[in-house]
Amino acid sequence: MWQKIISIINEHEKFVITSHTNPDCDALGSELALAAHLRAMGKSVLIMNSDPVPPTCWFIDRKNKAKRFHKNSRHLHKLDEAEVVIVVDVSGWERIGRVGDKLAQTKSFKICIDHHPDPIDFADVAVIDTSAAAAAELIYSLLVEMGATFTPRMAQALYAGILTDTGGFRFPKTSPKTHQIIADLIGHGADPLHIYKQVYEQSSLARTRVKGYLLSNIETAADGQIAYYSISQKTLKEHNIAFGHLNGFAGLGHEIRKVRVTIYCVEASPNRIKISLRSDGSVTINQIAMEYGGGGHPSAAGASTEGQLDEIVAGLVDKATLLLEKAAAEAAEAEAAEVATTEAEAEAAEVAEAAEVAEEAVTTSP
Ligand SMILES: [Mn+2]
């Protein structure tokens, strides 16, 4: 599956690698490991993203190889010059942001390597594998196919991508192959403890205290099936923390037994409420997010809306309660139908048996 891409790489010298807006460890790890190998081959490579590397990913890019696009600079010239553009971890121009707007106009050859199920709106060659748990898994397999030498830095970058995209090796796409790749990356110098600490143990004191505030203020509804919590502008100010540092708290409610839906709201600015919703998979909560002008996945969705914090939270709890009631009613109906089917089947079997006995009686009768 990699032959075409490998020959394109072999035949060209100037590359640009990019990914989605707000790049995460999978996007950056994939870019950095691929770029390292291309550079080792003597190619000229520029990693160019629309947004900067977030602090949680700094450790995989200590040499600042992933650049943030600046329109009025030599970056534009570099993008124009590229012979080949490789896009990883995303399939649509729109999600690439400003870099995508620019690249869409260049004549370069476009390669896409992704694991999302989205439609591809560019690319002369694409490898899309939605069974891969992370783009980093795909880059690993490309690099193996190319006979790359994995340095500890490359191994660490890919490991970080897989660790975060699988939510710590627990999301459904985590496979035997995922763990085989991880085993090989550890063999090449990726240090699990170091990477874990860099990804999950870098919170500021203020952020951890806010987490404590949220945990102590969790309420439940619908007989413990809904957990909800929120934080106001006033409390944010008291904790001296910026709105941008409050990601990663949307799943706190799921630690509690029986919880199926978690509602987390932040008053981002006066009367502007950011909503995060999570489901354990038993109900689809993106339909609620859509009612507030947002969207997302069936089990993880969000929205941003105007209103009073308490009123928005109350409205969300009501909608989630209705959703759970509907799901429960449907489940009960399905069960009743199943019981009815089993009863009907049992009855039919009885009739058939009686017929058989009767038949036997006829044939055995003298
Ligand atoms: Mn990914």
Task: Describe the 3D structure.
The protein is of the alpha/beta class and 366 residues long. The chain has two domains: 3-200, inorganic pyrophosphatase (n-terminal core), CATH 3.90.1640.10; 205-322, Roll (Diaminopimelate Epimerase, Chain A, domain 1), CATH 3.10.310.30. It contains 13 helices and twelve strands. Strands 3-2-1-4-5-6 form a six-stranded parallel beta sheet, sandwiched between helices. Strands 7-8-9-10-12-11 form a six-stranded mixed beta sheet. A hairpin with a 3-residue loop joins β11 (295-296) and β12 (300-306). The radius of gyration is 27 Å and the shape is globular. The model has no long low-confidence stretch (mean pLDDT 92). Residues 26, 89, 115, 134-135, 165 line the site of manganese (II) ion.
Please outline what is shown here.
By secondary structure, the protein is an alpha/beta fold. The chain is 46% helix and 17% strand. The protein has two domains: 3-200, inorganic pyrophosphatase (n-terminal core) (Alpha-Beta Complex); 205-322, Diaminopimelate Epimerase, Chain A, domain 1.
Describe the secondary structure blueprint for this structure.
Layout: H1 3-11, E1 14-18, H2 25-40, E2 44-49, E3 66-68, H3 74-81, E4 84-88, H4 93-96, H5 98-103, E5 109-114, E6 125-128, H6 135-145, H7 152-165, H8 176-187, H9 192-200, H10 205-216, E7 219-221, E8 226-231, H11 233-238, E9 261-269, E10 272-279, H12 286-291, E11 295-296, E12 300-306, H13 309-364
Parallel strand pairs: 1-2, 1-4, 2-3, 4-5, 5-6, 8-9
Antiparallel strand pairs: 7-8, 9-10, 10-12, 11-12
Helix pairs in contact: 2-6, 2-7, 6-7, 7-8, 7-9
Bound molecules: manganese (II) ion (MN).
Manganese (II) ion (MN) binds next to loops.
